[in-house]
Automatic annotation (TrEMBL):
Domain Metallo-beta-lactamase: 56-245
Keyword annotations: Hydrolase
UniProt GO MF annotations: hydrolase activity
The family this protein is said to belong to: Belongs to the UPF0173 family.
Span list, region Disordered: 1-20
Organism: Rubrobacter taiwanensis
Protein name: UPF0173 metal-dependent hydrolase E0L93_08645
Family annotation (HAMAP family): UPF0173
Length: 287
């Protein structure tokens, strides 16, 4: 995993005027994008010491307050959205797999074998990866919470499919797809929805776990459309969203702008549009 300093960090709130000239252009652009839509309501998400970097597609690198590294859906080498400097991970402690498709299971097996990372998945993928030689694997199923010491992870529903492509072109049953709610020692809660359409029980996820920040697919056609993702935001009651899983392939045509427009009635919503390699600054506090 690249050192945290290697990731380009954007502030979810506008930096003080005296700091603006020193910020890279992309930082200013993203900040302005956010401010343009929500100028009256901008409030930074308090990340509780958690560093979150978007690697592209549905892949995120997360560093806990205690310095442990997590990758959710580690699709790196073949991920066309993944910056080169993020492809060769040397240091990762946890891998979280939402489902078995290539763009999510990705590099999990070789990465887990090389690093010894604790790998979390549903039971079917657990069986698959342990059969491939992954030794440190943890099965979870919907409704259950695994306490991994540095954070807790709860498996929640996702509406999608979850097969694994065999090397001979066969389809291996991959169990049911998952979303994850991560709770860190600081109390900060992060929801990665995995690949999913909207479902009414997202309201339950909001009621039970009240995530501070949600990573929501918006790509349309094979996951939620921006229209559905906007209503998912309402059901979850979440006020901070990073759109993901869009634009990587022609069949993911949804855009952050469509999502932002569809969600424009949601009071106090912050939408953080991250380019691959950009992250959210954990040091910024809610103003
Ligand atoms: Zn996907």
């Amino acid at each position: 995993m690249p050192r945290p300093e290697a990731a380009e960090i954007i502030s979810p709130v506008r930096p003080p005027p005296q700091q603006r000239p020193g910020f890279p252009k992309t930082v200013a652009r993203v900040c302005l994008y956010t401010l343009a839509g929500y100028v009256q309501e901008v409030r930074g998400v308090e990340l509780g010491g958690v560093r979150i970097v978007y690697v592209g597609h549905a892949t995120f690198q997360i560093t806990t307050p205690g310095g442990k590294n997590i990758i959710i859906d580690p699709w790196l080498q073949e991920n066309p959205a993944c910056p080169e400097e993020f492809k060769d991970v040397q240091d990762v402690d946890f891998l979280l797999i939402t489902h078995g498709h290539f763009d999510h299971l990705g590099d999990a097996v070789p990465l887990a074998q090389r690093t010894g990372a604790t790998t979390v998945s549903n039971f079917e993928i657990y069986s698959y990866i342990t059969g491939k030689g992954v030794e440190n694997a943890v099965p979870v199923q919907k409704g259950g919470t695994a306490d991994l010491g540095d954070f807790k992870v709860t498996a929640v529903n996702a509406f999608h499919s979850s097969s694994i492509a065999g090397e001979d072109g066969s389809i291996i049953y991959g169990g049911e797809p998952l979303g994850y709610v991560l709770e860190f020692e600081s109390g900060f809660k992060l929801y990665h929805a995995g690949d999913t359409g909207i479902f009414g029980d997202m309201r339950l996820i909001g009621e039970l776990y009240a995530p501070d920040l949600a990573l929501l697919p918006i790509g349309n056609q094979v996951v939620m459309s921006p229209y559905e993702a906007a209503h998912a935001t309402r059901l979850l009651g979440v006020k901070n969203v990073v759109p993901m899983h869009y634009g990587t392939f022609p069949f993911l045509p949804g855009t952050p702008e469509e999502y932002r427009q569809a969600a424009s009635d949601i009071s106090g919503l912050n939408v953080y549009v991250l380019e691959p390699g950009q992250g959210l600054d954990p040091t910024v506090k809610t103003p």
